[in-house]
Amino acid sequence: MAKEKIYEVPESMKTNALINAKEYEDIYRKSIKDPKKFWASEAKKYLSWQTGWVEVSRSDFTKGKASWFQGAKINAAVNCIDRHLIDKADKPAIIWESN
């Protein structure tokens, strides 16, 4: 078997990254240790929900089935537009550039 080639991350990318390697590893470790707790936390942190969920996830990979946030309701318009109006209402949402 061929040896796996590892590419170094350029310094310019490291400097502009939102998280570093250690922070990534910490996040990854949490997601593996307790996936349901991790994804519930992320969903609450980054999305506005109309109603909460009964169950974070349910899956049966032998049947190729997976479902997330059972029983929850979410409004795409609220999450895509409305919740950003507090600090971005005076900025363009879409900028069109024709060919």
UniProtKB/TrEMBL annotation:
Identification of the protein by name: Acetyl-coenzyme A synthetase N-terminal domain-containing protein
GO biological process: acetyl-CoA biosynthetic process
Record domain Acetyl-coenzyme A synthetase N-terminal: where: 24-80
Gene3D superfamilies, A to Z: N-terminal domain of ligase-like
Pfam family of the protein (one): ACAS_N
MF terms (GO), sorted A to Z: acetate-CoA ligase activity
Gene source species: marine metagenome
